[in-house]
Amino acid sequence: MKRKLSCQGRGEFFKGPIMSIPTVAVFHYSLKDKDGNLIDDSKGRDPLHVMLGKGHIVKGLDEALPNMKAGVKKTITVSPEDGYGVVDESLRLKVPRDQFPPDADIQLKMQFQTSQEPGAPLFTVMHIDEDGLIYIDGNHPLAGHELHFDVEIVEMRPADPEEIAHGHAHAPGGHDH
Ligand SMILES: [Zn+2]
Fold this sequence. Notes:
By secondary structure, the chain is mostly beta strands. The chain folds into two domains: 23-84 and 143-166, Chitinase A, domain 3 (Roll), CATH 3.10.50; 89-137, Thrombin, subunit H (Beta Barrel). It has helices spanning 59-64, 161-166, and strands spanning 23-32, 38-41, 48-51, 73-78, 92-96, 111-113, 122-128, 133-137, 147-158. Strands 1, 2, 3, 4 and 9 form a five-stranded antiparallel β-sheet that branches. Strand 6 and strand 7 form a beta hairpin. The radius of gyration is 23 Å and the shape is elongated. It starts with 22 loop residues before the first strand and ends in an 11-residue tail after the last helix. Bound molecules: zinc ion (ZN). Residues 166, 168, 170, 175, 177 line the site of zinc ion.
């Protein structure tokens, strides 16, 4: 006759609140826009190591990866809302040249911030017209874009104690902070 496992003492094992251990996804990816143009990929590089559920990658990908297993290849389509956001027209501005410091060398595609505050938008110079008006855009370059990630999962593993303490994943040998 099998003995039933005793339930005595149940509930005393956990002294504090139960914390779930975050998952680290190790994966290769390529990112294309909806027309199939390649934006970025991890080809020829080490795979990405990402602690999931921390907002370290775009929401649509962060939410899709936990359901995947090592070895799986999948295309994940991410809407702008779950990607780099929708375009905010109020961040597209025309600024007279004299609003910039006189010694600033304003070039096309140049990027700058107007404030030191964390999360302040990064503006890109999009166009400089003949009258000296400068068109700048504070949207993420991929705002408004549907993103297509081709993902190949290399490994799914629990975060180690050091990663949990730091709040991010460490690539092997890549820990330099
Ligand atoms: Zn770290």
